[in-house]
Specification:
Blueprint lengths: L2 H28 L3 H7 L10 H26 L8 H25 L2 H22 L4
Length: 137
């Protein structure tokens, strides 16, 4: 695929990250239903924290996702960014670091559904970032 195709893919993926993050912020503001938290954890895991704590954690997570995705959108809305592979390398390293840490934490806490969601987000972001990061400076 051409660099332009990878560029468009990355813009779409970053938009999806912003959308998911925004949805989490809204969910936190209206209150996280207990049934949603039951879906995230394996049966037999300890009870999760209070609704206020969950709403706060979900909201902060969503806000970080919006910031992360918005940063990628801002950078990659400039077509000249394709000529700067160092930018893609920075986002690539950050994405891999997020994935490893989040998956390890999620597995340790039994939040298997979160791991699956992380794999989807990684699958959206990593291919275009890897290709764009591998280009010569």
């Amino acid at each position: 695929m051409s660099p332009r195709t990878w560029h468009r893919w990355l813009l779409l993926a970053a938009s999806i990250v912003v959308g998911i993050g925004g949805a989490l912020v809204v969910l936190a503001l209206v209150g996280v239903p207990a049934a949603l938290m039951d879906v995230l954890y394996l049966p037999g895991e300890p009870d999760v924290a209070s609704a206020d704590t969950l709403s706060f954690a979900i909201g902060v997570t969503g806000a970080v996702m919006v910031g992360w995705g918005a940063s990628m959108l801002y950078v990659y809305l400039d077509p000249a960014s394709l000529e700067r592979p160092r930018i893609a390398r920075a986002f690539f390293i950050g994405t891999v670091a997020w994935f490893v840490l989040d998956v390890v934490m999620s597995l340790a806490l039994g939040a298997i559904v979160n791991v699956l969601g992380n794999v989807i987000i990684l699958g959206l972001l990593l291919p275009p970032l890897a290709v764009l990061a591998a280009r010569e400076d």
